């Protein structure tokens, strides 16, 4: 069968790989693996496959040298359907040159683009300069266990990747106010994702005889204090570099400010939070109150009340430090703070030769884009790879409008066919240029 990457992506989208870890997801992953085998026979014949952690796939493509191995990553699982969709989220429909479906951007577009690039290169008789590993996790949206298993497998084999490339960045349009050119943002670090629970206990009872300052009122006070607290601000090095890179493309009044971001870093760090929630998230740890629980009945006073808080921790800070800040802001010893899931921010990957390989491929395939480093706000599977590599980067080689970025984890996720094909070209260039 001749290579048809678009049909391969359509078939991949039709496998509803929502992974809740219950076991009921297995047939969907089998369907996806069968589609990959059908569309990429040369890849499956030439590469060595190891199954890791649940439904994870780890392929090794032997290169001329095993010296500087490279890992290309993507994940197979998708988040559940949310909102009202115009097209079947698992239909793989193409309408007016646009592929619709859950996972087109996050992250099956990337998964299939990697496979298509490898399949095409093998068909051309190409041998990579170094070993290329493909690591496709199966539970990125939940636990990341498959990615951790892949890291263990590589560690056992003594593989120390030269660099790792996962999802995270994009060729982003309208990413920064006043900058008309798309920015090819490559994530060089990611914030830490941590969940904590605030809990207050006390006397419950009948709602006809309430007391003041019960668990719900104390919890509410704690929440409003967190909502008003100010976290320290800083402009990290990758963000300074991003501003300097995009400065020449910015609106005139903004140009000198961005070009001197290094010198103006303290002033910019104070200014950005005033420009909206997105700029604010660039410079400080964010605190979001997400879940609330109190009494189960209208006439029952809660004897315990709790709130879930999702933290995105700035690179350079630690979970313990941030928890201490929350404790100080709340100022009430009766409010317990429990860390449900602690995720530290990642180290910062260097901007050296490996980073340049990625930005050179961006410049070739997306000449209209300005390549720039940045810090990813969300967590990706790639964070586990810092255990075996210093150079972990995050870039999905697709053009994404603000609306498309907003559709990730929401409704009407889609990818233009032409943009998907350019993504394949990016991986080809990257592997050819190793
Ligand atoms: Zn993803």
Automatic annotation (TrEMBL):
<dbReference type="InterPro" id="IPR002933">
    <property type="entry name" value="Peptidase_M20"/>
</dbReference>
<protein>
    <submittedName>
        <fullName>Peptidase M20</fullName>
    </submittedName>
</protein>
<keyword id="KW-0645">Protease</keyword>
<keyword id="KW-0479">Metal-binding</keyword>
<dbReference type="Pfam" id="PF01546">
    <property type="entry name" value="Peptidase_M20"/>
</dbReference>
<keyword id="KW-0378">Hydrolase</keyword>
<keyword id="KW-0862">Zinc</keyword>
<dbReference type="InterPro" id="IPR011650">
    <property type="entry name" value="Peptidase_M20_dimer"/>
</dbReference>
<dbReference type="Pfam" id="PF07687">
    <property type="entry name" value="M20_dimer"/>
</dbReference>
<dbReference type="InterPro" id="IPR036264">
    <property type="entry name" value="Bact_exopeptidase_dim_dom"/>
</dbReference>
<dbReference type="InterPro" id="IPR047177">
    <property type="entry name" value="Pept_M20A"/>
</dbReference>
<feature type="domain" description="Peptidase M20 dimerisation">
    <location>
        <begin position="188"/>
        <end position="336"/>
    </location>
</feature>
<comment type="similarity">
    <text>Belongs to the peptidase M20A family.</text>
</comment>
């Amino acid at each position: 069968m001749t290579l048809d990457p678009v049909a391969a992506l359509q078939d991949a989208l039709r496998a509803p790989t929502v992974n809740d870890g219950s076991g009921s997801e297995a047939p969907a992953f089998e369907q996806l693996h069968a589609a990959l085998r059908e569309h990429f026979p040369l890849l499956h014949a030439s590469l060595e496959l190891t199954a890791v952690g649940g439904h994870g796939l780890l392929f090794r493509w032997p290169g001329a040298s095993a010296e500087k191995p490279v890992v290309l990553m993507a994940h197979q699982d998708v988040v559940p359907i949310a909102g009202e969709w115009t097209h079947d989220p698992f239909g793989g429909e193409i309408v007016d040159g646009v592929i619709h479906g859950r996972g087109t951007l996050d992250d099956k577009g990337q998964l299939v683009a990697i496979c298509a690039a490898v399949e095409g290169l093998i068909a051309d008789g190409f041998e990579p300069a170094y070993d290329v590993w493909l690591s496709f996790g199966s539970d990125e949206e939940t636990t990341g266990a498959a990615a951790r298993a892949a890291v263990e497998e590589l560690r056992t084999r003594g593989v120390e990747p030269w660099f790792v490339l996962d999802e995270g960045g994009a060729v982003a349009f309208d990413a920064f106010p006043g900058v008309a050119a798309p920015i090819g943002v490559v994530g060089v670090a990611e914030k830490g994702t941590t969940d904590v629970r605030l809990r207050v206990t006390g006397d419950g009872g009948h709602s006809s005889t309430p007391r003041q300052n019960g668990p719900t009122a104390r919890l509410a006070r704690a929440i409003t204090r967190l909502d008003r607290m100010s976290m320290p601000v800083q402009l990290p090095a990758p963000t300074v570099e991003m501003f300097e890179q995009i400065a020449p493309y910015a609106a005139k009044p903004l140009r000198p400010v961005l070009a001197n971001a290094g010198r103006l870093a303290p002033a910019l760090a104070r200014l950005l939070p005033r420009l909206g929630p997105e700029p604010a998230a660039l410079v400080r740890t964010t605190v979001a109150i997400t879940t609330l629980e109190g009494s189960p009945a209208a006439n029952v006073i809660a004897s315990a009340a709790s709130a879930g808080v999702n933290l995105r921790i700035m690179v350079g800070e630690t979970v313990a430090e941030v928890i201490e800040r929350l404790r100080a802001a709340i100022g009430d010893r009766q409010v317990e703070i429990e860390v449900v899931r602690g995720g530290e921010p990642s180290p910062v990957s260097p901007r050296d030769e490996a980073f340049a390989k990625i930005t050179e491929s961006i410049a070739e395939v997306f000449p209209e884009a300005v390549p720039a480093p940045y810090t990813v706000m969300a967590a990706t599977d790639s964070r586990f790879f810092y255990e075996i590599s210093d150079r972990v980067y995050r870039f999905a080689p697709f053009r994404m409008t603000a609306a498309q970025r907003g559709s990730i984890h929401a409704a009407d996720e889609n990818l233009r066919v032409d943009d998907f094909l350019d993504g394949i070209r990016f991986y080809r260039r990257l592997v050819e240029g190793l």
